[in-house]
Amino acid sequence: MFDLDKWQEIFYTLKQNKLRTALTGFGVFWGIFMLMIMMGAGKGLENGVYANMGDFATNSMFIWTQPTSKPYKGFPRNRRFFFKYEDKQAMYDNIAGIDIIAPRIQGGGYQNATTVSRGLQEGAYEVSGIVPDENKIDPVDVVNGRFINKMDLENTRKVAIIGKTVYNELFGKDEDAVNKYIRVGEIYFQVIGTFESKHSGRWGENQNSTVLIPFSTCQVVYNYNNIVGYFSITARPEYDIMEVEKEVKTFLAKRHSIHPEDKGAFGSNNVGEEFKKMNGLFLGINMLVWFVGIGTLMAGIIGISNIMLIIIKERTQEIGIKRAIGASPANVISTVITESVFLTGIAGFIGMFIGVVIVELVSQAIGSTPSEDSAFLNPQVDFGVAVASLFILILSGVLAGIIPSRRAVSIKPIEAIRSEV
Question: What residue spans of 256-270 are helical by DSSP H?
Fold first, then answer.
């Protein structure tokens, strides 16, 4: 039941020691406040990094050719070689762990732009030949029209889907680009759609500045014959992408007469491995956040326990008189613990509330003015975690009151009355 006298006593005690109460509560406030801020910052960093990755397949890898570093089977060192389109089916037939293979080639060569124009408007953009499966590995948002399909590939159609930046620079505002024509180099292509990258930062901007055409068409237009620039590969769910990468390199090395120990003949990027590293990094960050936050909270809790011990010592005579006139040990213990929990709970709630509000304000500010190169996005604190933190804090308040309460009931009434503060 609600004991008015007990609460009046608690408020009176806290009021009599305003500075001590404020400083003690501030220790708890600061602990949970910093925990909320660090949790929000950690989540914002995680969101920013993963947003930059878009919906990229996490079990994917890329592989391309480089000059050989060892002579082999009569071939000299520094030999240039290229993947062939037939390598795609050969890998499907010989490597069980592969799910999707998407060959890609860049018009004009690696990092070379092609002049693309429409009427008096023109710009230099990356032109890439792709296959429909490309959108399963690194998907884009098709804003209008459609993506490149199997028929485009088989019929070597002169069609293109253009990125957001290309559309904005070659077409008027709100103009429908579908079925219009653009000139890529000296050849006209029909626009079948527009897309927007799911990546943020420079990655997204580069993708938005791209013109995508059928792989077969790119080979003909740029006279690449059967050459492939690089392969994008995903592994089946039950296979490890790092093991698949090893098998792919071993198989392609045999197929193209590359020395088995030539580590420089292939360039590769294993996205699955990078994702594992990032997951490990953020796990470590979260553990650090909790370690520092809980450590700060514990410092505040210990401070409350020490202050309660001082209060008990100052109120020794008062406690002795209460015991002498019939107050039970349970009554004394409940008063001490209630005071500790009250101070801990109020300070903790205020710290949690202000911390969450600041994180939310920062999230709204960043959301309204996003940066292209920002690696920090939508900081947030999980509501369940915040409530659990407050519950743990209140439980800690109970523990913080146990030692002082045991000290209070251990004093014999006659000794307490005779003691001097």
Answer: none
Instruction: Tell me what pLDDT residue 1 has.
Output: 43
What is the Cα–Cα distance from 419 to 408, expressed in whole angstroms? 13
Which whole-number Å values give the CA distances from 90 to 130, 181, 229, 257, 402, in the listed order?
Answer: 19, 37, 17, 15, 72
Name the DSSP letter for residue 72: B
Query: Residues, the chain, total?
Result: 421
At 65, give phi and psi (nearest 5°). Answer: -95, 155
Q: What Cα–Cα distance (Å) separates residue 350 from each residue in 77, 125, 215, 308, 394?
A: 69, 54, 60, 21, 13
Q: Crossing angle, helix 383-410 and helix 329-368, to 10 degrees? A: 160
Give the number of C-alpha atoms closer than 13 A to the C-alpha of residue 2, restricted to the C-beta side: 2
- Reference 289, options 153, 199, 385, 369; nearest CA is 385
Residue 304 pLDDT exceeds 50: yes
Long-range contacts of 367-376 (CB under 8 A, 24+ apart): 370/200, 372/200, 372/201, 372/202, 372/204, 372/205, 373/201, 373/202, 374/48, 374/200, 374/201, 375/45, 375/48, 375/49, 375/52, 375/201, 376/41, 376/44, 376/45, 376/47, 376/48
Q: Which pTM was predicted?
A: 0.68
Confidence class for position 252, pLDDT limits 50, 70, 90: very high
